[in-house]
Amino acid sequence: MVMVNSLDHQLVKQIEEICAARGVRLTTQRKRVFELICSSPKAFSAYELLEELQKVEPQAKPPTVYRALDFLLEQGFIHRVESTNSYIQCCSCNAHKHYSHLLICDKCSNVIELQDDSLVALLVDNAAKHDFTITNHVIETHGVCKACSAD
Hints:
- It is a single chain.
- This protein has a single domain (6-150), classed as Winged helix-like DNA-binding domain superfamily/Winged helix DNA-binding domain (Arc Repressor Mutant, subunit A).
- Strands 4-3-5 form a three-stranded mixed β-sheet, with no helix packed on it. A two-stranded antiparallel ribbon has the order 1-2.
- The radius of gyration is 17 Å and the shape is globular.
- It has six helices and five strands.
- Helix 3 (46-56) crosses helix 4 (62-75).
- It is α+β, with helices and mostly antiparallel strands.
- 44% of the residues lie in helices and 15% in strands.
- Keywords: Cytoplasm, DNA-binding, Iron, Metal-binding, Repressor, Transcription, Transcription regulation, Zinc.
């Protein structure tokens, strides 16, 4: 796993500023879980995050990680990968409310987040034809990434 030294510190500063503006607390543990999630293109399960967190905070327990994940999801800083019950960073860190399309490599577990307004418009249009209002959607596409295809 790539560790936090490859982390985009500007991104961490951005979420600190967003939390301050919203009046919510970015605790050390929440920040650390976010940094772990951002340290790799792979999605992490809660228990993988706990294992990594315990390297620096041996007393960390599952509720610690789950509370941090709930906070980060609520703030829009991360996404839950439904099909693998894991978590990745949000590419816009909630700069605006958006729906994402995730490309998930079944070999290396890397996840790429795409934002495609035309796809969302098509989904909304199709739903409207059936008098259906979309409140949330998850689009996950599984396959093999370019790097793994070359192996």
